[in-house]
Structures are given as C-alpha cells and as structure tokens.
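hiii so um. not sure if this is the right channel but i have a protein structure encoded as tokens and i wanna go backwards to a sequence. like what aa goes where. can anyone help
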C-alpha cells in the first residue's frame, strides 16, 4: 500500500471505497472508531499525488469534505450489464473502437473486421454472426466504439492549415518551453477556435505530453470526435463523459492514468482525470454553466482547471465567443493573455445576419410572426433547413382558469405545472410530480382551461399545421429520452431528412448542419424579466451560440429574433455581433451594484419541512456569521436570510443566507470558521449546503 492506494472498507453491511491520503504509525482517533481495511484495490493504480493535492484544494476552496472530493476522482470500480441498440441501416467502428479492439480475440474478430471496413455493416449482416453479435453491438455502441453511418461520416474532414491569425493565437497560447499561462481565446462562432485547440494538443503531444480538453455537457458531438481523429491521426484518445458505462469509463481512466492516452477529452468530471504527463488544458465554451456541478461537491471545472494548470505549470486556454464576465474581467486586468479572432475562419462564411422582429405583429400564428413564417417558407422552397429555438420544453408552461384564476400549481413546489401534450398530463419541472390533465378547473368547475404561453411541443404542432408538407423534428430532453435517440436524430438531420428543427438549448452547441440557413428565436424576452443577475449574460451567450448554427458552410445564414424590446442593449449588441459592447455595459452595471466579478459570493442554502426550523437555523447562521465578520474587520458582509429563488421544492421550504466580499482571500478566510459554526448549529431537521462562487440563487 502507498499514498493514493484505493481501498475498500466495510461499514456495517456496506463496502465503501476510499483513498489512502496518508500512511501513519499511530492515530489520534480512538481505536474503537478505527476500521480495518477490507481490501486494497489492486487493478486501479494509486491516485497520484497531484490529484490528492487537487482534492485538498477543492475541499478547502469549496468547503467540502475531502472524502467526497477524492470520490470524484476515482474511476468506477464495478462493471455493468449492456444496453439496447437503436435501428440504423449501417454501422461502423469509430476511431476509439478501432483502437480499443486492436487486439480483440475470438468472437470480437469477426465483428471487428465486419464493422471496421470502410463500408461498415448492415444490421442483417451483424445478426448473421449469431445471437451474441447483437449484444456485443449494443455494448460497443454504448462504449462509443461503433457509430451509425451517415453521408457525412463517410467524408472525413480534411486536415486544416491554420490561417495567420490562428497561428499567432496558437503561438501566444503555448509558451515554449511549456509553463503556466492562462489565455482567453475569444473568437466568434466559426472563427476556428476548435482548430486551434486541436493544433495546440498536437503540439504538446509531439513533445511527448498529454493534453486535456474539457467540453460542455452536450458539446461532445460525433462531429467533434471526427475532427479530433482527423486532426490527430494516430493519437491515443481517452473520452470521459457521463454517457459512458462504468466499465468503459474505467478503461478510459486507466488509459489516462498510465500516460498512454495522449489526448483526454471530457465533460466537467474530466478535470480530475489523472495525467502523469500533462502538458496543456483547454476549456472549450468556458462560460458554459455545465462546468459547474450543482450538487454534492459544488466545484466549477473551469476554475479547478486553472488551478490545476498553475500547479502543474502548464498552459490553460479558455475559449469562447461569449466569455463569462469573470474571465473577461481577468483578461481586461491583464491576468490572462487575451487572444482574439474577430472573423470566421473561412472567407465564404460571414457571420449570420441578425434581424429583430416584433413578437406581436399582425398575422402571428401561435407565436410565429409573419417575418418568420415568410423566412421559413423561403427555406422550404430552397430545400434548406430552419431551426426554431425556444428554451422551454413541454406544450405550455402553465395552465390557467380564466374563471377563477387557478394556475395549476405543483402541490410540492412553489411553481406552476407545465402542460405536456404527448402524455396528456401536467408535470412539474422541478420535482417531477405528474398528474393527468384536468377536464375542468378543480376550484370552480370551468371547462375552458387555457394553456398559457408556448413550449417546444406547441411550436412543433403549430409548424406541422402551418407547413403540412414539411418534416418537423423536435429535439428536447423529452424527445431524446434514451441514450441514443439524440444520436439517431442527428443522423437524420445530417442525412437531410428534416426540414424544420424545433429545439431547446440542446441544439445550441457544437452542431454543424450543412443546410441550416435560418435560425428563429422565440420567447427570449422571458429572460429579461428574470431576477437572476446573470440572466442577461446567459441569454446573450445562448443566443450568440444558437445564431452561430446558421450558415456555417457555403450557404449564408440568417437569424430572426422575435422580441418586444428591439432597443434593449442585449439585442442591439447581438444584432451587431458585438460581445465587447455588451460585456462593457454589463461590467459597469455589476461594478456599480457590487456584484461578481467585482465581488465574491458564497451562499448557504437551507432546506427543511418546517419553515420555523429553517428560519431559526438560518437566522442563527446569519447572526454567527456577522459576529465572525465583525471580528475580522468586516471584510465580508453577511446578509439576513431570504427565501430561495424557488422557495419550496418537493415539499421542502428553501431559504438562504448570502455572504459577499470584495476580497476573495477574506471570504476564503471567513468560510472555514463559519462552516465550523454551522456544523454546531445544524440540527437533523434542516439540510444545508454551502455553495462557493454560486452561479445562481437557489
Ligand atoms: P469555432 O470552434 O471557433 O466555432 P471551428 O474551429 O469549428 O471554429 O471552425 C469553424 C469552421 O471553419 C470549421 O468548419 C472548420 O473546419 C473551418 N476552419 C477552421 N479553421 C480553418 C482554416 N484555417 N482553414 C480552413 N477552414 C478552417
Ligand atoms: Zn377556475
Ligand atoms: Zn414540483
């Protein structure tokens, strides 16, 4: 056994994994409270020292138990059964499949040669291999070793030659010899940021080191995978994301840990991937909120990445078209190198033209205004694709009774139920509560209940009515249930089997559909009414990203945003693709209000069945916090308890106490003392968590 060894300890009937963080001859813990080690896990190498140190940092910074932080870093220790395969005409091996199966024996060989050929294999050919074949295919599909074939997949993208702007950005981002440096790569959508990441990775790989590429939760598209393979021929690649089964994730983790994997690509959890020869970290779409974990250890993978890069003395590149204001401010202060790509990479593809059109124009049908109707019609006539973006799933976000004002509330949350047409039901998007659609108002018996507002399902139906000949496809969390449904839909879009796409932010990222030339945006104004101070920052990022889907190839793109507020600075800046103007306005606003990035926050969120118990705990927490702050020269301000943004969820009352400081170090010094007090104050009836650098308010 050594420092970092992975252990199993029996706690009652349960076997729990753990990590040896220190070897000691004696302990201060009472002997009867010490547990024997049941097993040292032999087939997982000890967690390297730098990861143990990283866990200590995360534990201290985010005020979380070290054990939970270490648990984030371990590979899965168990295997799992296989899943189902969707029907597709032909399948073939992916690059990681080729690599993984290079030494396959027995049964795998026939499958491998069939699927590994350029023409792939049909489902019939696979079935002909016998009963096992189908199950093997399912497992391989789940592990990302096979993919359905589409026209696009058949033409691997050409290796790119960086243009002069890209080359100078790359040279500036990777110091020689390699050392720590943080860079913000701010480039409009399609400016060639990804091409730079991949070339940067190639550079460090040539120097014998490993590159770590972090992407948002839904940014790990097959297109990206293909581009990686084309840009790094022959490189060993490990993929780490939540869609992988445990055994595959473990395999990938081991490849990273041994140093064999030269490029490690993954979502936020990959920031903890072992990498003995780490030479570079890239965070793509660094502003994306999926980098922040919202439960358990509430870390932000971008911030952990920066810390890790500095400790390992390697460069880190943060890329975005719409950087977070935190990152933007660091670049302005000169802490990060600021690299800019203001133009799209290829001359043929200008940024799409953005038009702001009124929401309530005469002739609007189900929220689709005449300008948008006309634009969609033109695309259908030219056999081009349109994407309608509305960031609400379901049929309608509320059901109202015009007779008495009843609003179909969730019985367990302070929220209204959402109308879902397909299941003829009402559903709560916060707690999952579901009930049948009522025939009449339960309060007054009125039978004319009115669905209020519009979601993806309602828009889909309206489009089907308006354009009966068009093929409409809806993509949201409900329609893509199941691991491979989304992949199958993407294949259909690529194959040109879809005319109009309706979708939520699932469609905003990374996808590159060749014939998509129109993006219509509906319902965006809702975010302008939000109480969250980051709402407009996020809306801009989302819209710029959605707009970036239009006209990425040779066909020019157009974006129509339906709004009641065409003069709003957000829309004016969006129409000009001028993120800097928008960021400057927002930063001035944040500074005058003393909000991030000019202040640092921590949020104590409490939940309890009893409002009295919750209030008593938070009031005491706030009082103690004030005493501590006063003792430390009042560098931190501790506020009084207030209800959370969602004041009741799943039957629990929710409220919070905010702590704010202009000085990060002062906040960091305050938190451990406060947390110790909170642990004293805590009682069983109240559940609480600390969220350091929260992205939202409960
Ligand atoms: P971003 O990541 O900034 O959105 P990408 O790297 O995806 O940009 O590039 C956008 C498009 O431009 C892609 O289709 C890519 O193949 C192409 N591209 C990028 N760099 C070059 C280049 N130097 N020469 C030709 N095409 C390029
Ligand atoms: Zn009523
Ligand atoms: Zn609910």
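sure thing!! here u go:
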């Amino acid at each position: 056994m050594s420092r970092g060894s992975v252990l199993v300890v029996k706690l009652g009937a349960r076997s729990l994994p753990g990590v040896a963080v220190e070897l000691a001859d004696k302990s201060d813990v009472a002997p009867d409270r010490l547990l024997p080690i049941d097993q040292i896990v032999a087939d997982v190498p000890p967690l390297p020292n730098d990861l143990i140190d990283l866990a200590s940092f995360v534990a201290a910074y985010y005020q979380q138990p070290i054990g939970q932080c270490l648990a984030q870093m371990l590979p899965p220790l168990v295997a799992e059964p296989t899943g189902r395969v969707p029907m597709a005409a032909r399948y073939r091996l992916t690059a990681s499949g080729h690599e993984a199966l290079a030494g396959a024996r027995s049964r795998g060989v026939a499958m491998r040669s069939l699927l590994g050929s350029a023409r792939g294999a049909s489902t019939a050919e696979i079935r002909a291999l016998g009963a096992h074949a189908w199950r093997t295919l399912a497992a391989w599909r789940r592990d990302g070793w096979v993919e359905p074939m589409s026209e696009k997949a058949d033409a691997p993208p050409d290796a790119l030659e960086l243009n002069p702007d890209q080359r100078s950005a790359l040279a500036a981002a990777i110091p020689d010899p390699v050392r720590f440096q943080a860079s913000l790569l701010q480039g409009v959508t399609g400016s060639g940021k990804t091409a730079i990441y991949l070339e940067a990775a190639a550079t460090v790989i040539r120097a014998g080191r490993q590159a770590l590429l972090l992407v948002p939760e839904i940014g790990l598209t097959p297109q990206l995978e293909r581009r990686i393979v084309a840009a790094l021929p022959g490189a060993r690649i490990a993929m780490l994301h939540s869609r992988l089964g445990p055994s595959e994730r473990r395999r990938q983790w081991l490849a990273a840990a041994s140093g064999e994997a030269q490029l490690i690509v993954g979502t936020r959890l990959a920031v903890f991937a072992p990498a003995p020869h780490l030479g570079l970290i890239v965070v793509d779409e660094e502003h994306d909120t999926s980098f922040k974990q919202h439960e358990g250890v509430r870390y932000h993978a971008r911030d952990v990445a920066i810390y890790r890069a500095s400790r390992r003395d390697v460069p880190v590149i943060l890329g975005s078209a719409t950087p977070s204001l935190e990152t933007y401010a660091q670049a302005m202060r000169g802490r990060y190198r600021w690299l800019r790509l203001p133009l799209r990479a290829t001359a043929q593809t200008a940024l799409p033209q953005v038009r702001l059109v009124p929401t309530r124009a005469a002739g609007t049908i189900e929220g689709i205004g005449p300008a948008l109707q006309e634009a969609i019609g033109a695309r259908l006539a030219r056999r081009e694709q349109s994407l309608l973006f509305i960031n609400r799933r379901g049929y309608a976000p509320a059901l109202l009774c015009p007779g008495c004002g009843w609003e179909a509330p969730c019985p367990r949350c302070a929220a209204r139920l959402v109308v879902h047409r397909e299941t003829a039901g009402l559903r709560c998007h916060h707690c999952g509560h579901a009930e049948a659609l009522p025939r009449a108002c339960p309060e007054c018996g009125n039978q004319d209940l009115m669905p209020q507002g519009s979601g993806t399902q309602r828009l889909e139906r309206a489009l089907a009515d308006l354009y009966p000949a068009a093929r409409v496809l809806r993509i949201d969390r409900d329609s893509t249930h199941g691991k491979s449904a989304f992949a199958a839909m993407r294949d259909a879009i690529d194959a040109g089997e879809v005319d109009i796409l309706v979708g939520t932010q699932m469609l905003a990222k990374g996808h590159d559909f060749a014939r998509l030339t129109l993006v219509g945006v509906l319902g965006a104004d809702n975010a302008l009414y939000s109480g969250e101070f980051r709402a407009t920052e996020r809306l801009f990022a989302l819209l710029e990203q959605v707009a970036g889907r239009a006209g990425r190839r040779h066909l020019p793109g157009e974006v129509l945003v339906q709004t009641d507020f065409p003069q709003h600075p957000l829309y004016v800046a969006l129409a000009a693709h001028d993120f800097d103007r928008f960021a400057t306005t927002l930063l001035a606003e944040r500074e005058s209000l003393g909000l991030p990035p000019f202040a640092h926050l921590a949020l104590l969120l409490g939940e309890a069945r009893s409002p009295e118990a919750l209030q008593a705990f938070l009031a005491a927490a706030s009082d103690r916090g004030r005493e501590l702050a006063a003792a430390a020269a009042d560098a931190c301000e501790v506020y009084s308890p207030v209800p959370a943004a969602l004041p009741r969820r799943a039957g629990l009352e929710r409220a919070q106490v905010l702590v704010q400081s202009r000085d990060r170090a002062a906040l960091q010094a305050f938190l451990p003392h406060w947390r110790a007090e909170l642990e004293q104050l805590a009682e069983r009836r109240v559940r609480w968590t600390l969220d350091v650098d929260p992205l939202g308010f409960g």
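oh and The radius of gyration is 27 Å.
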